[in-house]
Amino acid sequence: MQNPPHDPGSALAIRTHYRQSESRAARLRLLVDTGQELTRLAPHAMRERVLARACAFLAMDHGLLLEWDADGRVKASARHGNRDRLDSLDAVVDRSMCTPSWQDRPGEALPSVLRVPLRGGDGDAFGALVLANSVSLRAPDNEDTESLQLLATLLAAHLENNRLLTTLKSRDRTLSDLVNRLFRAQEDERKRVAYDLHDGLAQTLAGLHQRLQGFAGRCPTLPDPLDADLQAILALAQHCVGEGRQLIGGLRPTVLDDFGLLKAVDKEADRLREAGIGVHWTARCEARFPSQVEIGLFRIAQEAINNILKHAQASQVQLALELREGRAVLRVDDNGKGFATGQRLDSDDARHLGLATMQERASLLSGSFSCTSAIDHGTQLLANVPANLDGIPQ
Predict the structure, then answer these.
(1) Which of 94, 105, 128, 234 is 20 to 30 A from 196 in CA distance terms?
(2) What is the pLDDT of residue 16?
(3) How far apart are CA 315 and CA 277, in angstroms?
(4) Beta strands 316-324 and 368-373: pairing type?
(5) Predicted local distance difference test score (pLDDT) of residue 74
(6) Is the model's pTM score more than 0.70?
(7) How many CA atoms lie within 13 A of 159 on its CB side?
(8) Which span out of 53-57, 158-162, 367-371 was modeled with the highest average pLDDT?
(9) Cβ proximity of 251 and 193 under 8 Å
């Protein structure tokens, strides 16, 4: 069989097509491989990796990544090549550029320079990828330049996301600090009001009740209507004394300071018992914790009991306080009507606002809080926080 005649033109076309395919594949690998790497790298390593890959892609031996802030201050965030030669690249950056720019600089230490802008989400440049070579080169074609612009855009997106995340974390820390200060100020104010009530109004009410009792004991026999009125006044005075003590206990229970978290929560559970709800402790830990931990967990238990009394329609409540591997664990479970935890929380709903407050209190103690509930299957609350806050035991 006779071979077909050799066509030099066809061979040249095939070779040209092959080289173009190789070039396209290289551009694709540049973008895909770098994109995959950037998701796993810290911001500084991102900058270094993109700069190194860009230099290798165009076979240029120097590179500089410049970024500037809102005030126009420019800084080099990554370098590749000789530092002395790189210093000459600072002056070639135009902060208003929008597209890649090639520059020939005959006689300079770095005669060939390519500038590629890093643009943010608003379209404005906040940096530039500057590539240079110590020997004059031919300007890259449009496809290579577009590939580098895509690479710069990819880096810019990651850097901007990182900046936004850093800003969000900073705002979150600031908000948590403000909430923490608010809770502490609230506790201080409650403590002050509790002491003022104890030393003022509560003492006055107790004295009034005692004086009325003394008066009733010395009073001669009264007609039945007057005696009934006197007994009603005595009962009312006694009720006021009891309510005053209960109010003081709710503001700042002295049993929490004197006897610890377990006794304070158990005394708070008396409100459930008085409402005819059975209370059963499944685990009891009498250890003392740091003041912040005891106050935080007590307020969580107090809010949980409030929700049970107001909403749950429960007949049984199980309480547990444990110390597990250096963490204080509080559980409050009821057999009430429950609710759908998957539904959207209404900020006007007192129960959901209480749950958010419990979540925030646990979070401020570097702990966790969970709520599990279902219609007609009760509600289970779990708070888990470090028992030795800041490493300082009570």
Answers:
(1) 234
(2) 56
(3) 5
(4) unpaired
(5) 84
(6) no
(7) 25
(8) 367-371
(9) yes
